[in-house]
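tool=predict chain=A
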Amino acid sequence: MKVRVGARIAASLAAMLVAGSVTVIPAAASPNGVLISEFRFRGPVGGSDEFVELLNTSSVSVDISGYKLEGCNASNTRSVRTTVPSGVVLEPGNHYLFTNSSSSGGPYSGDVPGDQTYATGFTDTGGVRVVTSGDALIDAAGSSGGSPGPVDCREGDGTTIPATNSDTSLRRVGNETQDSDNNAADFETISPSDPENLSGDTGGGEPTITKIHDIQGDGSRSPLVGQTVTIEGVVVGHDDEDGFNFDRNFAEDRGLFVQEELADYDNDQDTSEGAFVGFVEDVLDYP
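tool=predict ok
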């Protein structure tokens, strides 16, 4: 039986099956690897149909609690749009999505839920930047227009911002990781937009499948601890629905033993292609 399961990775996972390989995202010019990876200053609904997406391109967790999303207009007047609440940590490869909640020319119309909303939008000749709670600059992206232009909210001379009401955004090239401190070189226009939020939701359609050998990691802990992922594999066994040892029942033991499909093996003798997915109420719920 083939199964697709979404699960949150627990710290104990790698203790059952060890080793694995994870692709490390290249480091960027940002001081900690957190970048503005994609943004849209207007959308199909109008000028407030906006979003700003962050991405942790580093190989370590980054606590973005207290980070501020700021905007600049064409005169370079800057103000705070919203602040990230406490307790928000971006694991390597994780995104964070800000969306505009204003009903005037909006709100954001995408099908990927935002992680944090703001109500004051960005002008077509403006820019956006992210700073820490202590106002240290993390990243910026903005328009090449205006007088003097959003110089505090762009890198280099900025780039051309789409000014029509369409599902068009600007996304970093190089798998969202290039950061040469030149917005014109680092961003490309894409349509439709392709935002992602902290939970990994990318909207309608099929979920992103994570390979089991990528979950396992190469140490005593999975590199994806705390993240929710979807796996697809072959069920090679299951613990009975009650679970037990010789003395008493353990309902929390029930679950599925899932093995990666042969075609998706990474052919690395140091990795594992199997996982136990616990807390499964009914194995027949997974077609």
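Residues 2-22+217-285 form one domain. The chain has two domains: 2-22+217-285, 34-190.
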